[in-house]
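Subject: for your reference before the review

Hello V.,

The reviewers asked for a structural picture of the protein, and I figured it would be easier to keep everything in one thread rather than splitting it across files. Below is the amino acid sequence we used in the manuscript, unchanged from the supplementary table.
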Amino acid sequence: MEKLIEKAEILIEALPFIRKFYGKTFVIKYGGAAQVDEALKDAFARDVVLMNYIGINTVIVHGGGPKISETMEKMGKSPSFVQGQRVTDDETIDIVEMVLGGLVNKEIVALINRHGGRAVGLSGKDGGLVKAVKKIIKKKMPGAGTDELIDLGRVGKVKEVDPSILRSLERDGFIPVVAPVGVSHEGLTMNINADYVASAIASALSAEKLVLLTDVPGVLDGRKKTVSTTSARKIQEMIKKGRVTGGMIPKVQACVEALKNGVGKTHIIDGRIPHCLLLEIFTEEGIGTEIVLA
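And here is what came back from the structure prediction:
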């Protein structure tokens, strides 16, 4: 009986959050271990389906970098990166689109549907969802007065998001699952960082939350402790002081950009924890880092 009462208390604790978020939109960037480990994949799908059933509109944006590299190697092509960005020539973009828009996307759709959801797979090209421009990165040249411009090929950044297709799916109770590729003005497919795509989509939808799943506990302070709540301003200070580095930089930048564009709150959480979404959203304590505007 005590265990049953404990379950009831958990539901009661979640009730204020369910009431608060009913009818709201959450954009979730899905990647890392949660996209690879079978038990974590099932837990993620169950979380998404539950959220959908209690009235939260969810949009999933997924990554798939390791699967792209694996497929490239099977096809005799060596992956190449500059400053963490995949060099994407014409042959590579075909592999990227095949893996992200086909293999990975449809696997996630099937997983959510198997657990009772109504997921629909899209890429940023569908319905003019994500319009992109070419991304050029700069590399400092020692002893030179100028930076070297590096052409990464078919790598893009988000120029504009048209959320019409997402709103149509949302009205009918579907769960959009979006592969992070876009299309340029010239009609070329562009490979885009999934964190930035998720941020741009959250902004276009005026989402209540943007949630990024990672393979770390969240943003860490100087003592390597998880920062529970912080602000966009403090995040910028942490970057300047070198406390936020490497792959965490695009994640926090995506969060800050979304907040500036009207998203309510952003979260960076540990996708290695089963049911991490429910634990972050429906409990007072949470498990990751919540980033707010002020």
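For the response letter, the relevant points are probably these. Residues 24-292 form a domain with the Carbamate kinase fold (CATH 3.40.1160.10). The radius of gyration is 19 Å.

Happy to draft the paragraph if you're swamped.

O.
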